[in-house]
Amino acid sequence: MSQNIQADGLAGLIDFLKKCPTAFHTAASVASILDRAGFVRLSEADRWHIEKGGAYYTIRNHSSIIAFKVGKKNPGHSFLVASSHSDSPTFKLKHKGELQVRGRYLKLNTEGYGGMICSSWMDRPLSVAGRVLVRTRNKDGSETYSSRLVDFGRDLVMIPNLSIHMNRGVNEGMALNKQVDMLPLLAGGQAGPGLFRKLTAEAAGADPEDILGSDLYLYNRMEPAVWGASGEFLSAGRLDDLECAYGTLQGFLQGGSDTGIQVYCCFDNEEVGSRTRQGAASTFFRDVLHRAVLCLGLDDEDFRCMCSRSFLLSCDNAHAVHPNHPEKTDPENCAYMNEGIVIKSHAGQKYTSDGISIALFTGICEKAGVPCQFFSNRSDMASGSTLGNIAMSQVSMHALDLGLAQLAMHSAYETAGTKDIDYLIRACRVYYSSVLTVLPDGTAVWSE
Q: Is the pTM of this model over 0.85?
């Protein structure tokens, strides 16, 4: 059974990665999967009607999505949540997105989104995707501004390196300037102004004058690749964090319980701090949980009691030991690809894991037959952070940070293990099929 699930999980992940060049496409892809599974879409602008045994989802900003399944017997027990994020470090086009160079080149004017490894974006085919806002003129004289997904879907631009003959010290280290070195080349010859706007309109199926706004990003066009002596590695763009977004979604769909409410979250803007109306620091998470509880006939006091018994998995990939730099990780609290789910801890609470949550999730992994490993940074190195403790500032519950081990985090082309996606799906399936209760005295109770 494990081998079949693993093959399906890996193949599904690769297909998912191909369909998700931006956070907007990720939310749309997750919504499509939920639609096929029979989930009902809810609009935040409408009154909700929630029933026991029902399955629902809602989207904010076309880039963050929350889905939930309601238990048939005792939905007011607790929430079981897994969260991930839909965005990845990249380059965003500025509103005035074209730059002419001596009348011979046309570049795109971009700025950095998140903390990318700049050099990994150079000398490789790139494309552009995101959303545009299109104006429609109505017969009554009013205007409608609608959002459309766009993906140029072809090798469109490239960021060329400077020749070593013009930069002799390039192999001794070079500070790349995003305004100077990282602007992508779009066209040569006598390309005039307005070319990119015209191309964008064609991709959106609209007239150029009706494209009034956009959120467009570069993405790496290289296909995902399975490689290694035994096919043990997967390389692709956006593994951080689409690998966790896909794995937790599959576990959410495959698992289920008659008790409580099971919740899947995929937030945008984690890479830039989450402090947006659709990020983990927004009201989105709390709004959805609170509205669901009220629609079930429960009240604010019930909601607070549920949160006290609830549990969240904050899922964001983890650093694997680097083959050329093993000294960069702790000698014992370190992770390797294909050796299981990584539980992340940090004394300064950059990660939410504590003794209670580690014990509970370790037990779930044992039940699922999934190996787990433990990661802490070297004590003399700063830790990264993720959305777990940010989301907990909005809705307080017990939480654990986990991820899957990978190399080259925040590169345009990252590497992970081919076995680990299966481990995450299996663990999340057991997690979502469980009843977890953490009592005020710190005692944790797990049952199927």
A: yes
